[in-house]
Amino acid sequence: xxxxxxxxxxxxxxxxxxxxxxxxxxxxxxxxxxxxxxxxxxxxxxxxxxxxxxxxxxxxxxxxxxxxxxxxxxxxxxxxxxxxxxxxxxxxxxxxxxxxxxxxxxxxxxxxxxxxxxxxxxxxxxxxxxxxxxxxxxxxxxxxxxxxxxxxxxxxxxxxxxxxxxxxxxxxxxxxxxxxxxxxxxxxxxxxxxxxxxxxxxxxxxxxxxxxxxxxxxxxxxxxxxxxxxxxxxxxxxxxxxxxxxxxxxxxxxxxxxxxxxxxxxxxxxxxxxxxxxxxxxxxxxxxxxxxxxxxxxxxxxxxxxxxxxxxxxxxxxxxxxxxxxxxxxxxxxxxxxxxxxxxxxxxxxxxxxxxxxxxxxx
Length: 363
Ligand SMILES: NC(=O)c1ccc[n+]([C@@H]2O[C@H](COP(=O)([O-])OP(=O)(O)OC[C@H]3O[C@@H](n4cnc5c(N)ncnc54)[C@H](O)[C@@H]3O)[C@@H](O)[C@H]2O)c1
Ligand SMILES: [Zn+2]
Hints:
Dehydroquinate synthase-like, alpha domain, binds nicotinamide-adenine-dinucleotide, binds zinc ion, two-stranded antiparallel sheet
């Protein structure tokens, strides 16, 4: 295995993650056996504005036929209306001798939507992921979860569908807004807490390089995060054995807060405080040390993420928390840190304690 490639071992669905520049995309598509397809490139309008012309030029130079389609940016595009419209577009693009392949070129929204499109169109056509946000590079492009939202429910409709490959070009991260970059950083910190104390220490030490988005450095960071996710996915590809659950560290309260704020609170900010709530619960139940808690709080703050929820009420967070629980397992289940780099799934934490802890993070 070369240093620039990571193998994801999933039997017949095994594939590689290529840490290469965007200009190498045609070569990589050929390497994964997608040379005879026409490519339906799904992106969003912002990414299209920034990189659309460049990508079209790269595909043309690589002698690959493609059509680029951009949906409006943001979660609003991950729904039935755009899905239905895309099926129509894909169908009129189709019709030649070979079936088209989908390239999802964008953040998690485009990855989930494009993935579901590829999974369902004619019962499945090839999919290739080119994640362009930090969140998509460290998280959503790997693992095969695809889907769309239904009214109030995120990801209610979807399928597991693995891509033929993933190309990660960290230089694309330079154009991300502060907010979108910070969202990805919250997930990076999460990986450090759940599985990788060295990664966590590296983030503490090299904060300036991370914040400067140094490509060489970030390539290593993204690779490390993906490697953690890869190992969890390989062991529990359909997320049925409770192994992938540790990826939800900080997300129990995080999701509830996101929901309570009606999605005006960005995911990364919600998760950052959610991680602190979980760490405080761990501290009060004597699973975690005060020093560990302090290190986490300092790193979160140092990366420009919030340590408190503003303008949110317990009442609203609680309602979403209960609703979420009903929707998933019905149990109160928290992923709590026991050390930096180690977590444990704990059930049955009394609601009164959750309330007391969350209350400390409201302003
Ligand atoms: N499938 C999974 O396993 C999984 C995991 C986590 C999250 N998700 C999903 O991912 C979605 C969130 O993903 P996201 O945070 O990437 O959001 P996103 O796709 O909406 O991207 C965030 C913003 O960044 C912009 N952007 C993308 N790439 C850019 C670039 N290189 N430069 C400048 N701007 C760029 C986009 O236009 C958008 O405005 C949610 O729908 C969530 O449910 C899926
Ligand atoms: Zn997340």
